[in-house]
UniProtKB/TrEMBL annotation:
Binding site for heme c: 664, 668, 713
PANTHER family per record: ALDOSE SUGAR DEHYDROGENASE YLII (PTHR19328:SF75), HEDGEHOG-INTERACTING PROTEIN (PTHR19328)
Domain named PKD: residues: 486-572
Name recorded for this polypeptide: Cytochrome c
Database matches in CDD domains: CBM6_xylanase-like (cd04084), PKD (cd00146)
Transport listed as a keyword: yes
Signal peptide: none
Organism field: Algoriphagus iocasae
Keyword vocabulary terms for this entry: Electron transport, Heme, Iron, Metal-binding, Transport
Source organism superkingdom: Bacteria
Biased composition (Polar residues): 189-201
Post-translational modification: Binds 1 heme c group covalently per subunit.
Length: 937
């Protein structure tokens, strides 16, 4: 018996060892990848590839580790990953301005909006660009040949034209993707006004066609507010694939339409396995439900086939808007999702719209979503993202994500900075979502896709609209199954300054997750000047003194024990001090707007090289000052459009003032011929190209003759190239359409007014901006300051610090405080003039709420007490919904317990904490729910 057991044991051991050896052998050729096991987050490494683009919009991948990127103002650039070089290959002429019926000119959302490489690019070198025609009011889809780093303009073939209006903002779309049959999908925005109500666009009054989305997204005979599907042909035309929404020849329809009923569809992607189409869609701005219909929602959408997605009649989970006659300001019944019809006078298509109406796949408001609470609360701008399929990548692709993510849709939001991994069932229906790399932030992500190497690439636009941003960048997320690259963080205590100045660099925050690399990383800082010279510094911390003016890049490269390295860079400017801009509200509170009819302000600008506004060296017209109403939920594009116009005019005025202070006017006038040509004639003669700008800068500095006559143009060797360029930029601007926005004076009064149609729940933004004159040929630097006056009613979900909070989102949002000494905190509130704080609390017997008193403390949860409320244990009972004619907000306030606290005099900015007290409560007991907190003066 023992012998049999020993034979059995040995046989088992032999089989076990054989199995292990077989498994190990398989591992060498095909690593074990269990789709049920979530990989460690530290196996993903963020790598910054390039930074500092001018409004990047979309990217596409080319062979040989190259990425093609387009910029809104027309730049077409190729980034080479192997060399790290970015090359401008062409500048496409595009329109970038809106001019409304009153003649006001503003920066436009349109320009060069999209790019895609043909699937057979390696053979035919074709790329497709979607852009706003520089002359005609239309958007154009055109094909070009890209040979290496040369865009052959003579190969241009216009495939498709989308007629548009360019009187009013907004929404262009421009995202593109090819399917496996060679069909091209193109997203097209609604090209319609953002209504002040933040709701749907249903304005049928004469002259308001641009405010009626029934004439575009809801119109079967219009290409706007659609996703188009066409098949580009080799001769530069296109055909219509089978299976679009309307068969060719259908009366009052466009056969190019694949899906319709979109407001602002962004970046599309296709699931290579199912063929389903996915995209992000930016919704309207209303922050609450109202008489005109539901609040605004952004959406992430899925199309399993052609269909109607509801806008402008439905949003989110097919929530209907109400019929609205703006001529009489009357409302009717909600639109019928089972029988959608377009009866607008501006409709040129079918009356009966396709059914069933397809609801959103994921939808979320500004506040916390009851259905998808993981998405949080904040500004919102759904971008889109790819569906990962491991089979899409070659076996030698180095950074392919693990099988855990197979079939998941990775989505990103431009405003909120998260990436979510969305899981779906075998039918493609939503199951769940989880945060991807929750410790990382992907701010202003305008495009996202997997590259041929298996890494996830994210194109980030940058922090400010309508300008090049130093923090715009292309990054990629690499998955490393083996050795992990270091995660690199580089910082400096000073990035600009007059020479000499010393910058102290630190790699604090850099790490490596492999145990064998701990304490063994090597750090190299390369300080590279704009003339190509490089100085290398060693160590985790380093210092360098800049003594020669110029532009520099400090690149930190960190290398681990396996030779793997990762880098991060900082841009520095030596020889020019950054300007300081400040706004003084003359002692008024700078956090809250308390209803003042006017506000006094003063803007101060000082610059080491330029002087200051106080001594008159910096003139008022060289500083952009704007004041705007900010709705409670708003599209930042329109506000940025106005601000950008004021900024560009301020910069151009620097060039005009340089002309005025020079001897140029002795020979040239602005509009009439003198000894030399007028500036207007110069602008007419020469197209505004980099080559012509460079040529004219040379003539201003070195002089010249023979172009306009025999009289020689005087040389101006004392002028720097930078100042000469500012003068030329102003001359070229004379014949261009310029923003007509008027900048405010440096000192005066502003009158806060709630625009017609707004609910008054928003705030105000006073902003000042100055771009300095540089120093010699050293680049300009900018400074800005702003005062954001918010509504004095604070939403508790905006609190930055929390203890003992339970947030429930079903059936409605409840912000519960749990247990004695629970608290929330708000950072950096100006308490100047605040005399009282009132809390609007819910206390319900249904959840056995115990009630509480509230202490208000400053700077920490244990800081000085500046106020205390009485204890409240009950709230009015007002039913489950507001009565007819009462807003939900008013109803909520009426039916809240309203304890208040008198506030001790506190000035300046502080962190404010609200501590909820009930010594009889257990830690799991609900004390109250917080609806709002009101600051009063």
């Amino acid at each position: 018996m023992n012998q049999l057991m020993e034979i059995s044991r040995r046989k088992f051991s032999f089989l076990f060892i054989a199995a292990v050896l077989a498994f190990s052998s398989c591992q060498k050729s095909e690593p074990f990848d269990d789709p049920t096991i979530k990989p460690d987050e530290n196996r993903f490494t963020k790598v910054v590839l390039t930074e500092g683009m001018d409004e990047p919009m979309e990217m596409t991948f080319l062979p040989d580790k190259r990425v093609l990127i387009v910029e809104r103002k027309g730049g077409v650039k190729v980034f080479d990953e192997k060399t790290g070089e970015m090359t401008l290959v062409a500048t496409i002429p595009v329109n970038t301005k809106y001019t409304n019926k009153e003649g006001m000119v503003r920066e436009a959302e349109e320009g060069l909006m999209g790019v895609i490489a043909h699937p057979d690019f390696a053979k035919n070198h074709w790329i497709y660009l979607y852009y706003a025609d520089p002359v005609d009011t239309q958007h154009v889809l055109a094909r070009f040949e890209l040979d290496g780093n040369t865009l052959k303009e003579e190969t241009k073939k216009v495939l498709l034209v989308v007629p548009t209006q360019r009187e009013e903002c907004c929404h262009t779309g421009g995202g593109m993707v090819f399917d496996q049959e060679g069909n091209l999908y193109l997203t097209v925005g609604n090209n319609t006004v953002n209504p002040r109500t933040g709701s749907s666009n249903l304005d049928e009054r004469p002259g308001h066609e641009n405010s009626d989305d029934q004439r575009a997204p809801g119109n079967t005979n219009d290409l706007r507010g659609k996703i188009l599907r066409i098949h580009p042909e080799d001769d530069g035309t296109y055909t219509i694939p089978k299976g679009n929404l309307f068969p060719e020849g259908t009366e009052k329809t466009r056969p190019e339409i694949y899906t319709m009923g979109h407001r602002n569809p962004w970046r599309p992607s296709l699931d290579s396995k199912t063929g389903y189409l996915y995209w992000g869609e930016v919704g309207p701005d209303a922050s609450v439900d109202s008489i005109w219909g539901p609040k605004g929602y952004d959406e992430f959408n899925q199309a399993k086939g052609p269909g109607f997605f509801g806008w402008p009649y439905f949003i989110g989970d097919n929530y209907p808007y109400n019929k609205h006659d703006l001529a009489t300001e009357t409302y009717g019944e909600p639109f019928d999702v089972n029988n959608p019809v377009n009866e607008s006078v501006n409709n040129t298509g079918l009356r009966e719209l396709p059914t069933p109406v397809v609801p959103a796949f994921i939808w979320y408001p500004y506040g916390v979503s009851e259905i998808f609470p993981m998405l949080g609360s904040s500004g919102r701008s759904a971008t889109g993202g790819p569906v990962f399929r491991k089979a899409d990548f070659s076996k030698d692709a180095p950074y392919v994500f693990p099988a855990y993510y197979d079939g998941k849709w990775l989505i990103v939001d431009f405003m909120r900075g998260w990436i979510m991994a969305v899981s779906m069932d075998e039918n493609g229906d939503y199951q769940s979502m989880e945060r991807f790399l929750p410790e990382e932030t992907f701010s202003s992500a305008i495009d996202m896709d997997f590259g041929p190497d298996g890494a996830l690439y994210v194109l980030e636009y940058g922090s400010a609209w309508f300008r090049g941003n130093s923090n715009s960048r292309l990054i990629k997320i690499e998955y490393n199954a083996g050795n992990r690259k270091p995660n690199v963080n580089a910082a400096a205590d000073k990035l600009t300054g007059a020479v000499p100045f010393t910058a102290n660099f630190t790699a604090a925050g850099t790490n490596d997750f492999d145990d064998y690399d701990q304490g063994k990383l090597t750090y190299t800082w390369a300080i590279t000047s704009d003339n190509g010279t490089t100085v290398d510094l060693q160590g985790e911390n380093a210092s360098y003194t800049f003594e020669t003016p110029g532009a520099y890049k400090a690149t930190l490269t960190v290398t681990d024990t396996k030779g793997e390295s990762n880098s991060a860079s900082l841009d520095l400017v030596a020889g020019n001090e950054k300007p300081e801009v400040s706004i003084d509200l003359m002692g008024k509170n700078e956090t809250f707007y308390f209803g003042d009819k006017s506000l006094d302000y003063k803007v101060l600008v000082s610059d080491k090289e330029d002087g200051s506004t106080a001594d008159g060296s910096i003139k008022s017209e060289e500083v952009a000052v704007t004041f705007d109403y900010v709705p409670a939920g708003f599209d930042p594009i329109e506000m940025a459009s106005k601000q950008s116009g004021a900024e560009s005019m301020a910069v151009l005025n620097i060039g005009r003032n340089l002309i005025e202070s020079s001897d140029c006017k002795s020979c040239h006038q602005y509009d009439s011929t003198s000894i030399g040509p007028s500036y207007a004639d110069v602008a007419k003669k020469y197209p505004n190209t980099p080559a012509n700008v460079s040529m004219l800068v040379g003539k201003v500095i070195n002089g010249g003759s023979g172009v306009w006559g025999d009289h020689a143009m005087s040389a101006h060797p004392q002028l720097s190239e930078a100042d000469a360029k500012r003068m030329i930029d102003y001359i070229f601007s004379m014949n261009e359409v310029k923003p007509t926005v008027t900048s405010l004076p440096l000192e005066g009064k502003v009158s806060p007014e709630v625009p017609e149609g707004e609910d008054g729940q928003g705030g105000y933004l006073l902003r000042a901006y100055y771009s300095d004159k540089g120093a010699g040929n050293i680049q300009s630097l900018t400074g800005e300051d702003f005062v954001a006056l918010r509504n004095p009613f604070l939403n508790p979900t905006l609190s930055e610090v929390r203890k003992g909070v339970q947030l429930l989102t079903t059936p409605s949002i409840n912000f519960f405080m749990m247990g004695d000494q629970s608290y929330i905190g708000f950072k950096d509130l100006d308490m100047t003039g605040v005399k009282e704080i009132m809390l609007y609390l819910g206390i319900s017997a249904r959840n056995n709420a115990k009630g509480a008193s509230v202490e208000i403390r400053i700077d920490s949860p244990t800081g000085t007490v500046i106020g205390q409320t009485e204890k409240v244990t009950s709230a009015p009972a007002g039913g489950f919904r507001p009565p007819a004619g009462m807003s939900r907000l008013e109803w909520m306030r009426q039916n809240s317990a309203k304890p208040f606290a008198k506030i001790s005099e506190v000035n300046g900015r502080h962190d404010i904490y609200f501590i909820f007290k009930n010594s009889d409560a257990k830690s799991e007991d609900i004390l109250v729910s917080i609806n709002e907190i009101e600051f009063k003066n």
